[in-house]
């Protein structure tokens, strides 16, 4: 790959996240900027584990990843193992934000705007200011999502009609 990039070869099975969707690209770009060596990261709605694996490859000390889909959990675990970061990746089947497993320096969620809004108070409590990365949100949904949070969120990027919110 190009300088400053990492290459990931993942098996997505039938779950979301091979790295080519605009929301995945937005989240990867944000993680590349935010994640520093030693950080703890939470990936809510991990799908294939692409963002969790990338965070570890960017230098995170550990990642907790969640998904409601057992197939996604198994796929993310397999992708962690096959990319050599499985020992620093904990994947759990859950519909909750595991705040008790924190603290987390960065929390990323590439899930639907409706799910993000429903989980707003939990997501708000998880990372420090500046550590929240949200996508899966259409540009026209960004203001609704922003209003659900107690912290200021800013649309920092947009791609093909999808927004990246950070705060």
How many separate helices? Answer: 6
Distance between the termini: 29 Å
- Kindly report the name of the CATH homologous superfamily: Vaccinia Virus protein VP39
Helix content: 25-40%
Using the coordinates above, name the CATH class: Alpha Beta
Largest sheet descriptor: 7 strands, mixed
The topology string of helices and strands comes to: HEHEHEEHHEHEE
**Uncertain residue ranges:** none
In short:
With 167 residues, this protein is α/β, with parallel strands linked by helices.
Describe this entry's structure for a reader:
This protein has 167 residues and is of the alpha/beta class. It has a single domain, classed as 3-Layer(aba) Sandwich (Rossmann fold), CATH 3.40.50.150. The protein is built from six helices and seven strands, in the order αβαβαββααβαββ. The protein has helices at 22-34, 50-57, 70-82, 113-118, 120-125, 142-147; strands at 40-44, 62-67, 89-93, 106-110, 132-138, 154-159, 162-166. It has a seven-stranded mixed sheet with strand order 3-2-1-4-5-7-6. Helix 1 runs parallel beside helix 2 (50-57). The model has no long low-confidence stretch (mean pLDDT 91).
Observed structural traits:
167 residues; alpha/beta; Rossmann fold; 7-stranded mixed β-sheet; 6 helices; globular
Mind sketching the topology for me?
Layout: H1 22-34, E1 40-44, H2 50-57, E2 62-67, H3 70-82, E3 89-93, E4 106-110, H4 113-118, H5 120-125, E5 132-138, H6 142-147, E6 154-159, E7 162-166
Parallel strand pairs: 1-2, 1-4, 2-3, 4-5
Antiparallel strand pairs: 5-7, 6-7
